[in-house]
Amino acid sequence: MPDILVVDDEPGIQQSLTGILEDEGYGTETVSTGEASLSLLAKRTFDVVLLDVWLPGQDGLETLQRIKALQEAPEVVMISGHGTIETAVRATKLGAFDFLEKPLSLERTLIVVKNAVQARQLRGENRDLKRQMQSRGELVGDSIPVKALRQQIALMAPTNGRVLIFGESGTGKELVARAIHAASLRNDAAFIEVNCAAIPEDLIESELFGHRQGSFPGASSNKEGKFHKADGGTLFLDEVGDMSLKTQSKVLRTLDEQRFAPVGGDEPVTVDVRVIAATNKDLEEEISKGNFREDLFYRLNVIPFYVPPLRERKEDVPLLVRHFLREFSAAYTRRARQITDDALDALMRYSWPGNVRELRNLVERMVIMNPTVATLERKHLPPLVYRDGTRRGAQQEFSTLHQARAAYERDYILRKLDDHHGNVSRAAEALGLERSHLYRKMKALGIAAKE
Ligand SMILES: Nc1ncnc2c1ncn2[C@@H]1O[C@H](COP(=O)(O)OP(=O)(O)OP(=O)(O)O)[C@@H](O)[C@H]1O
Ligand SMILES: [Mg+2]
Q: Is residue 170 pLDDT above 90, yes or no?
């Protein structure tokens, strides 16, 4: 039950207030001065403070001001026997929730306290949600490739350059796209997402460019497309490798002209849109198969970002696990969770074919399935991870030759860089490459150069 602190120097008021509040099930505490209320609030939290305006020593308004300066301050309801308008106005400006006048009405007191408790709870939930949202957008990781990604985001976001993000499923491509938008000069405008794989072929044009009423069966009114909605902001073309050739050519034209015509319309719409695309396909391979337009690839791929799979940056696993433990413990309002080193070890040895998404789902499941466990151990891990971690070790599996090659190259280059203490010129020489060539490769593979 919520806790209420009564601050009043009249014993009669103290008694009648604690009486009616305790009858309603509230916990109560009373003090007679503002100073005493502050020293109590420094030690424990209350949901609502009922505060007399006229107090011996530090008066009610000054006390109010100090209470409101506390972190996660309680709601404060002022009580006054001489309720003048000015005091009420000043108290409200200082953050008081409401005002009660002496003689106190039982009914009104209970209503005001109930409202104040509710407001306090809402404020708390709001704060938690904000905190969660902030931490959800965070790119967690301390590995070299993640640090390089953050560096690359900071560098490239403020330009208007088109970005193509590639990497396996669940590696964090969308998170990177959102981070680029958030760090860009367009962050006040919209971030609009289109999942090209999820929209049926015959609807994607209308989805992207909008349509005019009656332009095809089912077009019962005008519709604004995503390119239009993203005007001034960022359009995220997710799974761009799944777009049909017909749509690709219209997107290409739109990128060239920053202008397009909605389906069934002929007046062109001019827009200012930054396009960020993502794919888990090997687009070069799709080009050679004739499934993806080469010219569109080069238009989109102005700034390439590679998000490496989790198995190539296992040092991020403990950080990610702790991050998701915090997220889900908060979301399911359970206490904070710890995890043993032994369990982390098993998680680090697993190959994570579903990458960070798989890890996130696994942590969520562990939190839900073990509601009373404060420290998660190896035995709480699902058998798949447990077994994989011991049997197959760090063995890697790749779905395409491109991925296997990239992983091998990355590994090899990292080793050579290590051999030469991060000196790129010497590593390039040892690899038989031009220094600039090696730089480009490192950039594409998400390897940061040591300063
Ligand atoms: N570095 C990271 N730090 C924190 N959370 C991450 C990180 N990388 C990925 N995630 C989380 O993992 C989940 C999957 O990430 P995201 O959706 O960005 O992947 P994706 O590469 O777009 O996957 P897909 O190709 O399947 O669409 C999301 O919940 C995302 O917030
Ligand atoms: Mg995605």
A: yes
**DSSP string covering 354-410:** THHHHHHHHHHHHHHH-TT-SEE-GGGS-HHHHHHHHHTTT----SSHHHHHHHHHH
> Mind listing the pLDDT tens digit for each residue in 153-168?
999 999 999 999 999 9
305 beta partners: 165
Give the number of the ligand closest to the Cα of residue 175.
Answer: 1
Q: How far is the CA of 6 from the centre of ligand 1 (A)?
A: 49
What number is the average pLDDT over the span 119-125?
88
Expressed in angstroms and rounded, the spacing between residue 383 Cα and the centre of ligand 1 is 23
Judge whether residue 81 has pLDDT over 80.
no
Ligand 1 site: residues with CB under 6 angstroms? Answer: 139-141, 167, 169-175, 280, 320, 323, 356-357, 360
* Residue 170 alpha carbon to ligand 1 centre in Å: 5
d(CA 287, CA 294): 6
Which chain residues have CB less than 5 Å from ligand 2, an ion? 174
Whole-angstrom distance, CA of residue 291 vs CA of residue 326: 42
Q: Other C-beta atoms within 10 Å of 1: how many?
A: 11
Q: 367 C-alpha vs ligand 1 centroid, how far in Å?
A: 19
- Compute the distance between CA of residue 347 and CA of residue 321 in angstroms, rounded to an integer: 9
Q: Which residue has the tokens 């998680």?
A: 347
> pTM here?
0.63
Q: CB-based contacts of 151: which residues, under 8 Å, 6+ apart?
A: 448
Name the pairing type of β-strands 210-211 and 223-224: antiparallel
